[in-house]
Amino acid sequence: MSNKGKLYLIPIPIAEDQPVDKHIPKEVFEAVQHVEVFFVENIKTARRYLRKIDRTYPIDDKTFYILNKRSKLDEIKPLLKKHKGATFGVVSEAGCPGIADPGELLVHAAHELGVRVTPLVGPSSILLALIASGKNGQQFTFNGYIAKDRKDRVKEIKRFEQLSRKGVTQIFMETPFRNNHLLEDLLIELENSINLCIACDINGQKEFIRTKSVADWKINPPNINKRPTIFIL
Questions:
Q1: Least buried of 81, 90, 153, 205, by fewest C-beta within 10 Å?
Q2: Long-range own/partner contacts, residues 54-63 (CB < 8 A, 24 or more apart)
Q3: pTM of the shown model
């Protein structure tokens, strides 16, 4: 290991109703044992996750820093320098850090400072939804969260539709409590013939992944309010 340290990108389950070891490989549990400094979205959640991994995990011996969408690069780099040579870990609230979750700034800083970056295998709702959708996995774009303002959202929906018809799969998401409003807009604005995949509660007991035409979705639209969901065109 470089004397400048090492950074593990630590995945976390995306379904809260499943055992930790069902979707997280044992290699992740082994790597966590070596981490000295954690960067996390929520310290309480992260500590709970570490306890699920190992009831005897020495949490009080570890250092925790908050890493979220408000974090700045010039705040993160000094922390890596402060703990030069340490083994770091980054944990988001669900899935893999750095994909629709904080993490990229820390990784960027690590590369700049010569800290070795090691990604660990774990679930990503975005990739799992894509491979289960039946849509093109050779060319795709993850667009992140769709616009909140309806006028802007409709423009994005129309753009996604055009790109999808050209063979480039479009993946996007919404804050769970606004899912039903987004679905209403999709069913209003999209052509009836286009296929839409709705992937909810991935890896969970109530997992729901279906790809149907907009016309078919209109017959019986699902209630996806407050359910973590990925939309794919």
A1: 205
A2: 54/29, 57/32, 57/33, 62/35, 62/36, 62/37, 62/38, 63/36, 63/37, 63/38
A3: 0.91
